[in-house]
Design a protein that fits this description.
Blueprint lengths: L5 H10 L4 H14 L6 E4 L1 H16 L11 E5 L26 H8 L3 E6 L37
Parallel strand pairs: 2-3
Antiparallel strand pairs: 1-3
Length: about 160
Amino acid sequence: MLSLSLKELQSRFLSGTSLPSYLVQLSLRRMELMSRLNMFVTECPTLAMEQGKESDSRYREGKPKGVLEGVPLAIKDNFCTKDIKTSCGSLMLDNFPSPYNATVVQRCLDQGGIIMGKTNLDEFAMGSGTIDSYVGPTRNVWGGGVSYKLVDREGR
């Protein structure tokens, strides 16, 4: 399921052959398997599962919010997310929970997107290789020593 397009996901959700909460579980597992790559500054598994279950309900009722309904999203850590730490890759902002959502984040949520967490970046986005973050560099999936496949044996 992790390699499906948005249209394919939406089709499965609308037909009831799969649920957003299941996709969230798969995404959380993938995050766990790839944690050595240091991609996420903040992970939001509890929030993601709550949002996934809410999305399940909206699909069961036939009332999805929009095109991102049930789709797991990783938000770059320089976009504010209400009540979730936004550090911009800087130790100075390590304990800053934003009081509001950035417009792009709010629009994704308004369309039913599910926040999985906040991704690593160079401090204040002043770089291009994600090597100057206070939580350390992000490692390349191809050279990071982590085995990686787009799908597992069951096609997920």
